[in-house]
Specification:
This protein is of the alpha+beta class. The protein has two domains: 85 residues; 50 residues, SH3 Domains (SH3 type barrels, Roll). A five-stranded antiparallel sheet has the order 4-3-2-1-5. Helix 2 crosses helix 4.
Length: 141
């Protein structure tokens, strides 16, 4: 990722990250997190910001940076949807926890996929259910 993206566009990606921080302050209290339920109109918002490219938005960030943020969000939603469709075929399959949450959810623990959600999978382990988000598990079977 560094060679093929970060090294190409370091300043542009810093601006996109700034858009994330400013947007988080506006829409969320607490740690930096993308609440995907707050705005789902990526394509429309992207075009609205594209029409204002070269200018600053009222929050002080560049409209062009918001175009890039919305394009990345649109792409991520497409990837998430494709992964959810693939995982939906694997309900009853097995995942391995890739982060250490301790106890029933320690790193390396294997769990059965109970259901698939847009942001991850609900899993079952020794009679307990939990939600693992993308990046916190790997599909084994």
């Amino acid at each position: 990722m560094a060679t093929g993206c970060l090294d190409y566009f370091p300043d542009a990606l810093a601006e996109v990250a700034r858009v994330s921080v400013v947007g988080n302050r506006q829409h969320n209290l607490g740690p930096l997190v993308w609440d995907k339920s707050k705005s789902t109109d990526e394509a429309d918002a992207l075009l609205r910001h594209l029409a204002e490219r070269g200018k600053l938005d009222t929050d002080g960030t560049r409209h062009s940076a918001k175009v890039a943020w919305r394009a990345l969000a649109l792409l991520q939603r497409e990837i998430d949807a494709a992964e959810s469709a693939t995982l939906a075929e694997r309900v009853g399959g097995v995942v391995r926890v890739t982060r250490d949450f301790g106890g029933f959810w320690a790193k390396g623990t294997t769990c059965t996929i109970e259901s698939v959600r847009a942001n991850g999978v609900r899993v079952l382990n020794e009679g307990r259910t939990g939600l693992l988000y993308r990046g916190e598990y790997e599909v084994l079977a």
